[in-house]
Amino acid sequence: MGTHDTRNPCTKLCRYDAADRCIGCFRTRAEVRHWKRLPDETKAAINARIAARGGTVSKKDGKRAKKLDKKIRKLEAKLATLRVRRSELEGPVVKAAE
Prior knowledge:
Layout: H1 29-33, H2 40-53, H3 59-97
């Protein structure tokens, strides 16, 4: 048995950024998908890379981030609706000025 850190670094904040890395644990999609089948040395190297980066996002912060993302999505949907309504108001004004 080795003394490698082979624990799963998942923080249950599984969303990916543009670089295809999880925003919770900073693993790639492939690393997340194949974690159980990876050799212990590879798992230890991934965990060392995550630790060198400053660790993972905590579960508490992850939950807060999920709540904020949900609020942002709702606000973006409302903003889109308001923009449509605004453009409808501007439409007749522009035509009347012509």
